[in-house]
C-alpha cells in the first residue's frame, strides 16, 4: 500500500512538473549541474578526470541535446551528441524514449544511463525528481542489472523508482 | 526495499569522497527549482506562472496584454486614462495596492505607492511572470497587500534577440536583448503609442444636495493618449555577485485630463523616471545554508502637469482651466539579507530587511494659462520613512504528499509603529489526481506620502492622521486532474481589508481628501481548466467577485455608489501547433457588465474581444501576424465621476463610458542570434 502510494505520488508530482513546461531550460540547467556530481559518485567510472559522455538524441530532441551540452561545462567531461548508438562512451544521457534493444545493449556493456525526463526512469538508472526539493531519481533495478557500484549517499538522499 | 539496497551498497562500496560537493549542489539546484517555480504544485503557494511560450505565442505587445488572460484579473482604466490592474474586483484610484518586482527588485514607488510606468513593459523582453493574487507580507514585506507581480526578464537561458512590433493603431515597440559576454546582459526598449480614440462628451454635474444632474456639456474632444516609453536594463554577474541597473522612462499624455476633462489646447503631460541600482551577493555559508544579500538605491521622479478644471463659470474656455503640476523626486536606500536553510524536511527563510526613503524635491505649482505660476511645497519639510523588519518562514515537509508553511514578519515603521503579519498554509496530495491547498495570509499597507501629506488645490490632499490598511485573506484551492495531461482548479477566497483608504470630501475645506472609509469585504471564486494535447494546449477560466464595502464614514457617497468593476470574467485561449514552425493562437475574453447606475444601463458595457494570430518561426526568425478584437466589438471602460472640484461639481463622460481603440492589426518580428 505504502509502495503503491509512493509511486502514485511520484508520478503525480512528475506529471505536474512537466505537463505544461515539457523539458524547459531551467530543468536542463539543473540536470547539467547535478549529473556530473552523480558521475563522481559512480565507482565504475574509474577515470574521473576524463569521463566520456554521449547525449543520445533524435531529430525531435536535437535542440534539447545541444542546450544540455552547452550547460555541461565541466572540464573533465568529453561530451558528444550522437544519433546512432555506439559504445565508445562511459555515460549515456538519453533525450527520448529508447527501445528495449538499445537499453539492453547499454546494460550488457555496463554503461551508465541517465535520462533528461523522469518519465524515462524505467529505461535509465538516474534522472531528476522535482518535488518540494530536487532529488536524484534512481532506478535500482537497472543499477543492479549493470552491476554499478555507487556511493550510498545517493540512496540516502535520492528518490527510488520502484 | 530501500533499506535493503542501502545496506547492500553501504557494505560493498563505502566511500565518502565527493559527497560534500554533491550535497551542496543538491541544495543549489533545489534553490534554482524554487526560484524558477518548478516546484510550484508541491508547495503551499498560490503563485501563478506564465511562461515564455505563452507570452510569445499570445502575440502580446505589453505586460497587460499577457495578464488579461489570467483568472480574476481585469485590465481597466482610471478616469484619467491610467491603466489599472484590478485584482479580484479591487479597483483603487491611483494605486493597485500590489507589490511590483522586476527580477525580484521592487519598483513600486513611495510617493503614490504605484508603478503604472511599468505596465507597458514589452512582452518581448519577458521570460516569465509570477503573479500572486493574495497578500504575502511575510515573504515580500511592505506593499504586498493585494498581491505581488514579479517580472522575470530574458536571461542567460535565452537567445540574443531584436524585436519590432507595429500595430495599425500607431503603436510601435522596439526591443533588444543581448548577452554581451558571459557575465553581462543588457536589454533595452522603446515604445510609442498614440492611437486615435473617438471624441467623447464631458458633462458638468452638480452634486450639491445630491442632485447629481448634468448641467451641460463642458467639452467634446478627442482624448490625448500619447504614451512614450524608454527602458534600459543591465546585469553584470561575476562569481557570487550581481550588479543590476534598470531605468524606466514613461511619458504620458493627458488623455481625459486628470479629472475626466479632455484636453483642449496646450496639452499637458507627465514624465516619470524610475531607476534602481542593486548589488546582490549569494553564497553557501554551509552545505545547508544559503545567504542572499541585496542592497541598493532607487530613485523616482514625477514631473508634469495636468488640467484640473475651469476656475470660473466659463467651462468651455480652455484658458480658464486651472493647471496643476509638480516636480517630485524621491530616493530609497535598502538592504536585505536572507538566510535559507535547506534540509530534507525543512526549507526555512530568515529575512532581515531595512529601508530608508524620503522625497528630496517636492515643488507643487498651479496656474491659469497666461498667468504666473505659484509654487509651494507639496509636502511638509523633512518627511521620510524608515522601516526595519524581521521575518521567518518555514516550509515543513511532513510527508511527500503533505507540507505546511507558517511564518511571521515583524515590521517597524518610524511613522506607523509596529506591525505583525503572519501566514499559515498547507498542501495535501490526496492521491495522484487530487490536491488541496489552504492558505491564510495577513498584510499591512502604510499610506503613501501623497495619501498622508499632499496639499493641492483639488484632487490630492493627504491626511496625516490616516491609519494603515490591514488585510486578512483565507484562500482554499482544489486541484484535480481528470486526464493525464490536464488540470482543473477551483479557488475560493474571503478576506477583509480594514481601514480602507479612499477619497472623500472634507466637510471643512470642501477639498478632496484621503480618508479611512471603513472595511471592504473581498470574496469570490475562480475556476480554471487547462489541458495540453499532442498539437498544443488550451485553457479556460471563469472568475466571480462579490466584494462589498462597509464604508460608514463617507460624505461623497457618489464615489462609491458603484463598484465600477466587472464581477464576472470568462477567458480562454488555445495554442495549436500546425507544424513545428507554424502555430495558431486564439484567445477570447468576456467581461460582464459592471455595476452601473440605472440611467445608463442601456449602454452595452459588456466587454468582449476575440484575438487571433499566426506565428511562424524558422532559422532564428519569428514573425507573428495577428488581429486583436477581430469582431471590432465596441468596448468601453466604465468610469465613475471625476474627483469633486470646488466642493460641488464633478465631470462625467457621456454615459460614464471611456471608449477603447477597437480592432487592432499587428505584426511582430523577432530575430534571434
What would the keywords be for this entry?
heterodimer; A: 162 residues; alpha/beta; Rossmann fold; 4-stranded parallel sheet; 3-stranded mixed sheet; 6 helices; 7 strands; 20% strand; globular; B: 673 residues; mainly beta; Maltoporin, Chain A; 22-stranded antiparallel barrel; 5-stranded mixed sheet; 7% helix
How would you sum up this structure, described in words?
The complex is a heterodimer of chains A (162) and B (673). In chain A, 40% of the residues lie in helices and 20% in strands. Chain A is an alpha/beta fold and 162 residues long. In chain A, helix 2 (25-39) crosses helix 3 (62-71). The longest helix of chain A is centred in the N-terminal third of the chain and has 18 residues, at 2-19. Chain A is globular and about 35 Å long. By secondary structure, chain B is mainly beta. Chain B has one domain (2-658, 667-672): Maltoporin, Chain A. Chain B is built from 6 helices and 36 strands. Chain B has a 22-stranded antiparallel barrel. The longest helix of chain B has 17 residues, at 19-35. Chain B starts with a helix and ends with a strand. Mean pLDDT of chain B is 87; it is low at 4-16. Classes of the chains: A alpha/beta (162), B mainly beta (673).
Q: What portion of residues of chain A belong to β-strands?
A: 15-25%
Overall geometry of chain B: globular
Helix and strand content put the structural class of chain B at mainly beta
Q: How does the major sheet of chain A shape up?
A: 4 strands, parallel
Name the average pLDDT of chain A. 84
Low-pLDDT residue spans of chain B: 4-16
CATH class descriptor name of chain A? Alpha Beta
Kindly state the percentage of residues in helix of chain A. Answer: 25-40%
**Average pLDDT metric of chain B:** 87
Instruction: Give the name of the CATH superfamily of chain B.
Output: TonB-dependent receptor, beta-barrel domain
The rounded distance between the terminal residues' Cα atoms of chain A is 13 Å
CATH architecture tag of chain A: 3-Layer(aba) Sandwich
The CATH superfamily of chain A appears as Response regulator
At the third CATH level, what is the topology name of chain B? Answer: Maltoporin, Chain A
**What class would the helix/strand composition of chain A place it in?**
alpha/beta
By CATH, the topology of chain A is Rossmann fold
Using the CA coordinates, give the radius of gyration of chain B.
Answer: 26 Å
For this structure, the quaternary state is heterodimer
Largest interface: A-B, 46 and 52 residues
N/C terminus separation of chain B: 50 Å
Question: What would the principal axes of the Cα set say about the shape of chain A?
Answer: globular
